[in-house]
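Researcher: I'm comparing several assemblies side by side, and this is the next one on my list. It has 656 residues spread over two chains. Same procedure as the others: predict the full complex and return the structure.
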Amino acid sequence: MSRSQRMARHVVQSLVANKGRTLLMMLGVAAGVAVLSAVIVLGQGTRERVMGLVSKHGLDMLMVRAGGEVQVFAPKSDRGLAVLFEPDARAIENEIPNVQLVSAVQNQRGITVVHEDRSVTTRGFGVEPDWMEIRRWGVAEGEFITANDMASSARVALLGARVARELFPEGGAVGRVVRVNNDPYTVTAVFIEMGTDAGGDDWDNRIVVPLTTATRRLFGRPSLEQIVIRVSDARRLPETAERVRTLLRVRHQIAPGKPDDFFVREPADVQGTALETSNTLSTSLIGVSLVALLAGGLVIMNLMLSGVTQRAGEIGLRRAVGARAADITREFLLEAVFIALLGGIVGVILGVMIAMLLSATGMGTSRVTWHPFVVAALACAAIGVGFGLHPARRAARLDPATALRGSRA
Amino acid sequence: MGIVIEVEELVKAYRKGTVVTEVLRGVSFDVRQGEFVAIMGRSGSGKSTLLNVLGFLDRPDGGRYRLLGEALTSSDDDALSDARSRKIGFVFQQFHLLDRASALDNVMLPLVYAEVDAGGAERARSLLEAVGLGNRADHLPGEMSGGEQQRVAIARALINNPVLVLADEPTGNLDEGSASDILDIFRRLSGEGRTIVLVTHDPLVAARADRVLYLDGGRLVAGRPGTVGIASAATGDATPPTAHPTA
């Protein structure tokens, strides 16, 4: 056995010999870690639920529309204001933090799509490859617009579910050729059914083409109707919106006091508040668990301090047979860390169980990840060292001769 | 045989607030290798303090102490710990065994802090054999008699092959038979060249030593002080310690 193995063995023996005290110290830490890991598990669950809300309600999306605020309420005709361009989209993408995905968007009503003897008039969209992800849409069959489609301004069309149904009642639209405003386009995808959104737009009644195809062929103009933006952190969305506004005012050379020639639309405030609330809640719960951990640490420290007195004889003996002061410090610290780790293991199990129980009774949402385990391990080691140091030092400072007189080993 | 212990004019005082208690007031003696020396004296005569100084558990305030010609008393705490580990074996009145550790583990305890452990378990077993406990190696202290526990403690004191064994009232908690066994072991060790210094207040124990040093009031005295009962003991208490001649 190596020197440290021999020491570890003695430490374990000593912990076993003082079962009662070991158990008490463990429980102190276990309680703290239990609260901490329950908070983490519940926090992760809440976070996931909130992320669900975010994606369902598009809480992480900003939309920039061409035309000032007044225009937003204009009738559903296309406004045709040539103020927003693709370089605006690239500037937003490159210059503003918290921006994850950007797509420039063109759209225009009255696009005629024909297949054999069937014809529909619908709304056409020119978009970039990230658009589908930002709008959280998906294709039922086929493939969304690719970088290649963009580079070659490919004549490809993606059909909304209703458009596909009307042109291809038998199905099998993908791979077929349709005429869009009299030009042949290959159908590369059919979107999944989406229905009508809160603004009254029927998503299934659309066709989508690559942005470059739209600017060069279908619409034949460079101006955009929208830029859609996905942010990384939904909680910082208002701040990001403000930065977008400032950037565009500078790019559009709008003098102070003049109104914007664009409008940045943010998601409804109510849901933003829900995000804030979940945030504050987990912050305060983490505060509670830190207090619990601290209490656990104090329990360890106090019991170890009384242990130093009780075990004075043993400490004296160890010094007499050659232990250096540093050896005694190390042994006591090792004991504290052992106990804290054991308490941590018990605490994580307890905490995860508490969280599961709470979510089973509908009082929260839990999600078990590796986080509580890592956090607990780190917290325990820190507690062991932090709160064990004072008693360990005191033990090491005991005068060996006095300690030996003190009591039996 | 060479000189193991050289002590010259050793002085030690304890301060508690403003009160200074002089425990050793100039003690001088030598011990040769293999000698079995007993230190006698009443409680408070300074014999335990002297033993602690000899064992590097305490530092003297004045005078010189050399172990095998080496003066260590002014070295740092770690050097003293190492000296205890390599050169000294302690035996205590209360045995000071670890309750939950087997006899063998107790004997091996000093190895936790020693530099070398090669063959430690075998050496520990042979030491237990030597004190007659070869078949009790796995027993816990609670399963042994006082005499057996003290023999384990002696084996522990010998594990690092020390030049000097210091024993503080080693038979104080033992019945006569066990005490005699312990003293036999010390005699044998002395015969093998091991130097033994033992503190006792029991004249029968001291009688087994090669030489007896009498401490009184912090000084060595020529004979055994206070031998004739209460009257003389009372006189001893009334007389200032300085009145006694130094050895």
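Model: For your comparison table: The beta strands of chain B are 3-16, 19-32, 36-40, 62-67, 70-71, 88-92, 164-168, 195-200, 211-216, 219-221.
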